[in-house]
């Protein structure tokens, strides 16, 4: 028994029965004192091993279209509405194939093609189709996409082309969403997520923490993600970007980030929980290690869309050091 009742409850409820924590219980974990963080992370790690196994999934990402997005997500330097240093850039298909080969060479099993758009137009969809065909012809890797909000026809097309997983983040809790995005709604994002799931693609739906939300709203977001039952949840931590409305937001405290990692794992015991953007700034090397031993079972290696990550070799060497095997790819195409 621990001196913290919520961890005893979680051990029986989540570890032994496989039932995720409720919103109120998640809030209790997020409110644990600093001295309880190691115990929370240890329990989250046991939950991950019990319900997900020991393998870690490695993914690389690249943007086919960077910058110039018409949406006003307050955290994003790719918005064309803000005076940020990011400018519009398109990659051609040979560059995507080259990036996919480089990603596969790291041992990654997933390659995600991202576009900074509200949603894809016909031109972009045609480029994606051609890119998928070329990558599949030359690289043995699963392909994921993140192209904004979709129509049903576009969901059906991506499914037909063999897209393994679609990324569409909720980002923050429903109650806080209007504070960080005004050009589309939480419900619009949710609708794309539902269509993706209904079509049989895996859903990757993540969180961006540290945008000024309350601890209660972090618990709300974890519960809302758990209710959606995504296959994967990337955990991002805000890296304030110049020129965006959140450029002066303080960096999230590393201990709060570790509490969140444990809480999200205890909320979603069977979900792939992926380290994503901002972890280098928020957690550093030691915190990154703590998270991998605290419920994380997937990482994005290399750089992100507009910010630098850790060198892929640093993450891969850490996985070897921690005796965490990289998941072998199972082609779904």
Question: How is this structure best summarized?
Answer:
The chain is α/β, with parallel strands linked by helices and 333 residues long.
Structural description of this entry:
The chain is an alpha/beta fold. The chain has twelve helices and ten strands. Strands 1, 2, 3, 4, 5, 6, 7, 8, 9 and 10 form a ten-stranded mixed beta sheet that branches. β8 (232-237), α10 (254-267) and β9 form a beta-alpha-beta unit. α1 (5-16) runs parallel beside α3 (37-52), α2 crosses α9 and α6 runs parallel beside α8 (186-199). The longest helix has 17 residues, at 122-138. The chain is globular, with a radius of gyration of 19 Å. Residues 303-308 and 329-333 have low confidence and may be disordered.
Topology:
Elements: H1 5-16, H2 23-30, H3 37-52, E1 57-66, E2 89-90, H4 93-105, E3 110-115, H5 122-138, E4 142-146, H6 152-160, E5 165-167, H7 177-180, H8 186-199, E6 202-204, E7 207-209, H9 215-228, E8 232-237, H10 254-267, E9 272-275, H11 279-292, E10 298-300, H12 312-321
Parallel strand pairs: 1-3, 1-10, 3-4, 4-5, 5-6, 7-8, 8-9, 9-10
Antiparallel strand pairs: 1-2
Helix pairs in contact: 1-3, 2-9, 2-10, 3-10, 4-5, 6-8, 9-10, 10-11
